[in-house]
Amino acid sequence: MHDRPHARSPYYEASGRVPLKLIPVTLAGTVVTLLLAWAYGWISAFLPKAITAMAVVLFAAATGFNAWCVARIAKVRHPRWMGRLGLVIGFFAWYLQWAAFLVLASDDGSVAIVNGFLHLLANPRDMVTLIATLAKMRAHASLVTGAFFDTTFIGWCIEFALLLTLPSLFGKLAAAEPFCEVSNNWMETSRIAGRFRHIEAAEDVRSLLETHPLDLFSILAPHVEGQSPHHALVEIHHAYPQGDFFVSIIDVEVRNNKQKLEARKTPVTSFLRISDMSADDAIRKLTSLSSHIPAPASAPEDPPELELAIRHLKASEFEAVIVAAQPFVKAERADLRRDANRLCALSTARLGRWDESLVYWKALFADEHTAHNALQLASTSAMAGKLDDAEHWIEETREINTSTRELPGLMMQTNFITALCQSGQAQAALPYLDEIKSVYEQVGITDPTHLCLRKLPMFDFFLQNSAPVIRAALGPESGRAWYQSMLPHLDDHGQSCLKDWLDRHFFGAAS
């Protein structure tokens, strides 16, 4: 069942399809509704009113979630129709809980309770009569107490309103979520791992994107920390690799309310259609854009004492850099001392004078205790052949980066592995390559978009770059076994990719 197709819109519009699968799924949801109603009826019959007041909200929310699950599992793409079904589910839940409450409150024994419950389900007129009688009793009690009827009656009204509203709303929202008709699956929502600059003129931006959606990449700019707390977030809704995907931009306004930060989110665009590029390319481009942070206008200038050394560095005159910067490596001024040591460390490393480079890196680390400098010490120690020192510094890097998070993704392991391999210590690099392998095994999904959002290299890039290390450390036969141990942990795409790659590059070791 479905409505007529919508005319093509700049935004996602549900197709209006209502699959026949909805019938068995709704019946299964009815069982869930019955269990929820019985539990809530028991709470209403035996527990204090304060607990019942909290339980009614939970019951309505659970019934709403039940309607949401029905729409998702049955793949209903008709928001209005699903809203009506949610209304029916909510009313049915209200009816069931009243039947449960009335028979449980009577306390006539388990058999009588079951029989009474079934009788009320089959005879709505008797149910209405009992509720009316109970309402009269409450009204009479209110004449005595003066307040009891008001709170009870208001509670009944709130209960009825919640059970009609939430399931209808949840069902409608679920059916309005983006759905890929090509793959017959709900679209996955991926939030870009980064923040963008606050959208000033939301109306103008929305109008522009409706006619020129690819201007998205020129409108969005990276958010610079420290300039303003306001920012924008971007979500990509995608499923089929070659089909349309949709973009949502959410503007986040951050306010300080009585020493407490509050974020108010306002949609700029919701489910904007993008047709002229793939979702993978869009995610890569947006992720790169959000992480490309320009230097703040207030960035400190280079010390004038090091201008000559910096000119030599730009000209790749590394000996001259050392001569010009070395007099300042023990300067009293911290900024001058740090930059002088940095210049000397970089230049001696480019000249392959690793022991000398270590001296400068250690001096810089004493002034600038960062994960980046610790990683430079680890890599330089490896190049100098000092494996014990290198392993000490890589652990120091790991410890610092745990709190600062300044090194993204697998940068620490990849840089250190490169240094070990360049210094002829491929065997020592194997434990760190095992760490990278373990990350891919834990993630399991090798889809490029999925990996990109987690700041992990593409799976084929990992295979290509790890091969020289594995061949040198393990040899062809053990190397093939090392890769094959990943197969049970990967998705179908990853398994197929890995098998094909092994046949091409480790074919001589195949059994």
Which characteristics define this entry?
511 residues, alpha+beta, five-stranded antiparallel beta sheet, two-stranded antiparallel ribbon, 20 helices, 7 strands, 63% helix, disordered N terminus
General shape: elongated
* Major β-sheet annotation: 5 strands, antiparallel
Helix percent reads 55-70%
Assign the structural class, choosing from mainly alpha, mainly beta, alpha/beta, alpha+beta, or little secondary structure. Answer: alpha+beta
Low-confidence runs: 1-6, 293-299
Order of helices and strands: HHHHHHEEEEHHEEEHHHHHHHHHHHH
C-alpha Rg (nearest Å): 33 Å
Number of helices: 20
**Proportion of residues in extended strands:** 5-15%
Distance between the amino and carboxyl termini:
54 Å
Describe the fold and architecture:
The chain is built from 20 helices and 7 strands. By secondary structure, the chain is α+β, with helices and mostly antiparallel strands. A hairpin with a 4-residue loop joins strand 6 (245-256) and strand 7 (261-274). The longest helix is centred in the first third of the chain and has 29 residues, at 148-176. The two termini are 54 Å apart.
